What we know:
This protein is of the alpha/beta class. It has helices at 3-16, 64-71, 86-95, 99-102, 114-120, 170-183, 223-230, 238-268, 304-307, 334-341, 356-359, 427-442, 458-466, and strands at residues 39-45, 74-80, 103-104, 109-110, 124-129, 146-149, 190-196, 275-280, 308-309, 311-314, 323-330, 369-371, 380-384, 388-393, 407-411. It contains 13 helices and 15 strands. Helix 2 packs across helix 8 (238-268).
Amino acid sequence: xxxxxxxxxxxLALVAGLAGCSExxxxxxxxxxxAPLQSAVLVLLDTVRADHCSAYGYARPTTPAxxxxxxRGVLFENAISSAPWTLPAVASLLAGEGAPRALDGERGTxxxxxxxxxxxxxxxxxxxxxxxxxxxxxLLDRGFDAWVEEEGHVRRTPPGATPQPPGSGSAARTxxxxxxxxxxxxxxxxxxxxxxYEPHTPYTDRRFAAELPVGRVGPSLRMGMVRDIQRGExxxxxxxxxxxxxxYDGDIRAADDELGRFxxxxxxxxxxxxxxxxxxxxxxxxxxxxxxxxxxxxxxxxKDPLVRVPLVVADPTDPRPGRRxxxxxxxxxxxxxxxxxxxxxxxxxIEGRDLGPLLRGEEVEPRIAFGGDTRLGPARxxxxxxxxxxxxxxxxxxxxxxxxxxxxxxxxxxxxxxQHDLAAEQPxxxxxxxxxxxxxRGQGPQGPSTPPLETLPQxxxxxxxxxxxxx
Length: 471
Ligand SMILES: [Zn+2]
């Protein structure tokens, strides 16, 4: 962290209740980290908001498998992604730093990955993903010995064939393939990434929606309807929004069911005792509660429904499993944690830091979350502490798009839904956050982190269109 950033954090500490850059005097003395684990699994459930997981207190039983895993590990209540859509979020996850540094802005490709560190340490690395933006076309396969791109629920229909109902069962196949790979590893050390779009649109699982009025939505929420909503041609009624929300919850549960089966397979193979298991998501979803025009979409805003994601880390050697950590952590911390726990150190200058001290119950300095990379609407960036979220236009405040304010400041303790903008009331605090963003911008590359979609290979364009991206 640069000296300027540290100074700004020290100033923020005074007004925003943050500890400074130095170690807290009352932090418990660090204990020796445990011996390295043999292997690790990282499960990425695409498009899951933390506040729609029953593991996070949501009323519907959307994530019983995640709850079981949390009882064996640590649940992070405030895990923050660095971007509200897939490519920059997954790139920053793999690189351990924000998308402008992680991705080559010209080509939208991953510059480097912590998976390369694991690979160099002699660990077998494999990924089972459902493609789209989680694709080797963006060099996200860096460092992976095996990278299998399932077609997921965006499989192409051969000419003349009846289109399959999308969204159903993609997780079942992807997890099954990943479990088959696991069963072949024997005593080898491995790092396995499993990614599914199951909770992403289209929403198809009706288990929580069966009793609800369908309205104009129909049995599933199709991509055509999502596009109609985005174009302003359709505005859902409150009852229809509740139905859409129930479908989304059903898709989360469908993914969680497969996660549960996969974790059972890990147990059955005798791997749970020596494998770190991490489950998270890349970003959340707008269910019409932020902006009705982006119902069932993401990429357009930086409020918590889009960037606060589930994160559970289960370490089989944890002497006190079942804890919940309220301190803010970031998705960029996940791969540094896995690398550290597998005993694969690196000397990369990255933003992400090992969560090991928090996993061992040692309190450490606060982790400030930075992010941005909005895909729709004016370009914006955010900085989030445990106490505040600050969002700023990064395209020049007087730009033509009127739909986003130049800057916004929210007190997360009193206003967790981020509805009362305090930027005008607390300009000094907003200025401090703005300086923090500016200093950080000065430390790294700028600019767009993805190429224009029309420059991508044609098959990839088709798959992205099926996910609702390419228009
Ligand atoms: Zn995603």
